[in-house]
Amino acid sequence: MQKFLTLLFLSDTHARWRFWGAITLFVLNCIIGSIPGARAEAAQYASGLVLHSFGYSVLTFMLFTGCKGEPAQRALKAVFGIAIMGAIDEIVQSFFPYRHGSVDDWLVDMAAAIIASTLMWALWSLRKHPAA
Q: pLDDT digits over 46-97, tens only?
């Protein structure tokens, strides 16, 4: 089972799937979040801070492992990708009268991306170059 999970989540063989999976999840997030009342129902279970932090951390993981390059390059690509995705998400929200775009939400998205990509960078560096 461990080999299967490693192959699925960390191998370069499935990197393209993770990248496009992140894009797909982001689009679904925008669509589902635009349904009237959907965000209010989700707020019963988790705050906006938790939802944004968790969601964008997962997207960061998928982008980091879905990109090519050295760990630092992957981290930068993931953070820039999340910056764009978060901005698009907030812009889309501003078009609906029952939602509103927020710079604070975007900042939470960015913080989650920076923390997640830093952790991934450190772990990926250890994976590629284990200590002797």
A: 777 888 899 999 999 999 999 988 889 999 999 999 999 999 999 998 888 8
Separation of CA 71 from chain center: 16
Beta carbons of 39 and 96 less than 8 angstroms apart? no
Gap between the Cα atoms of 84 and 103, Å rounded: 13
The amino acid at residue 61 is F
**Distance in angstroms (rounded) separating the CA atoms of residues 64 and 18:** 9
d(CA 43, CA 114): 24
**Torsion sign over Cα 62, 13, 24, 38:** negative
The angle subtended at Cα 60 by Cα 54 and Cα 63, nearest 5°, is: 145
Q: Which residues contact 92 (CB under 8 A, 6 or more apart)?
A: 30, 33, 34, 101
pTM value is 0.84
